[in-house]
Design a protein that fits this description.
It is a single chain. By secondary structure, the protein is α+β, with helices and mostly antiparallel strands. Helices cover 25% and strands 25% of the residues. The chain is built from 4 helices and 8 strands. The strands form 2 sheets. Strands 7-6-1-3-2-8 form a 6-stranded mixed sheet, covered by helices on one side. The protein has a two-stranded antiparallel ribbon with strand order 4-5. Helix 3 links the parallel strand 6 and strand 7. The chain is globular and about 40 Å long. Has an important function as a repair enzyme for proteins that have been inactivated by oxidation. Catalyzes the reversible oxidation-reduction of methionine sulfoxide in proteins to methionine.
Length: 163
């Protein structure tokens, strides 16, 4: 599985995003993570500036970064700043953490497609942030909705594909 690529995204509480992405075609693994913040070794109780994010490991022969982002924009509200559902704060921001200029370009293109589609009532507030490092969330948060099927989520598939 050395040919797998990784995408780093944040769109609100990481539990719901992980639960939906885990079954997507081409997705081989998911891990809930903290990224983009101020401290080393963040925890659920101490992650200033970090987003609750998701590391998506995918096979580029089965899916693409563009299709990962297409689904990302369908399952969370990218138009709200620092908020998803009842969750409020920068931890719940909509963000794409790009690893290189090609990912940044694709992310900008997808944001433009989403905005032009008119499916959301406002333009995306999704930030583009350079990926630096990610820290795995605590074990209790990994696969949370598998372990707790009635647990909280504000994520759902809202639209068909943007592309």
């Amino acid at each position: 599985m050395s040919n797998l690529k990784k995408a780093y995204i944040a769109g609100g509480c990481f539990w719901g995003m992980e639960d939906l992405f885990r079954v997507r075609p081409g997705v081989k693994d998911t891990e809930v993570i903290y990224l983009g913040g101020e401290n080393e070794n963040p925890t659920y109780r101490n992650h200033p500036g970090h987003a609750e994010g998701l590391e998506v490991s995918y096979d580029p022969q089965e899916t693409s970064f563009k299709l990962i982002l297409d689904y990302f924009f369908r399952i969370h509200n990218p138009t709200t700043v620092d908020r998803q559902g009842n969750d409020v704060g920068s931890s719940y921001r909509s963000a794409i953490f790009f690893q290189d200029e090609e990912e940044k370009k694709v992310a900008k293109e997808m944001i433009a497609v989403v905005n032009k589609s008119g499916k959301w009532r406002a333009d995306a507030a999704t930030t583009l942030e350079p990926f630096t490092r990610a820290w795995a969330a605590e074990p209790a948060h990994q696969d949370y909705l598998v372990k707790n099927p009635n647990g909280y989520t504000c994520h759902s598939e809202r639209f068909g594909s943007f592309v």
